[in-house]
Specification:
This protein has 76 residues and is mainly alpha-helical. The chain has one domain. The chain has 5 helices and 2 strands. Helix 2 packs antiparallel against helix 3. It is globular, with a radius of gyration of 14 Å.
Length: 76
């Protein structure tokens, strides 16, 4: 892993395919969904008007990680 990729991974989720293509942010999440049994939903969310909403939601969550971590990753 290069230094640039490590720094970029600290800011956004990344997926590197076997062919070397890099998906980052919300597009990486959609790629994961597409390949883990949610293919139809992921392909639907990749359509232009919907993908913008996915991008916005990812941006909001990624820029407020500490706030969302309080609700999503609590100890029982």
């Amino acid at each position: 892993m290069t230094t640039e990729l490590r720094d970029a991974c600290a800011r956004a989720m990344h997926v590197v395919t076997t062919s070397g293509k890099v998906h980052r942010g919300s597009r990486a999440g959609l790629f994961i969904l597409q390949h883990t049994g949610w293919g139809i939903a992921a392909r639907l969310l990749m359509l232009p008007p919907l993908v913008w909403g996915v991008d916005l939601a990812y941006w909001i969550v990624s820029h407020n990680r500490s706030f969302f971590a309080r609700f999503m990753f609590r100890r029982e």
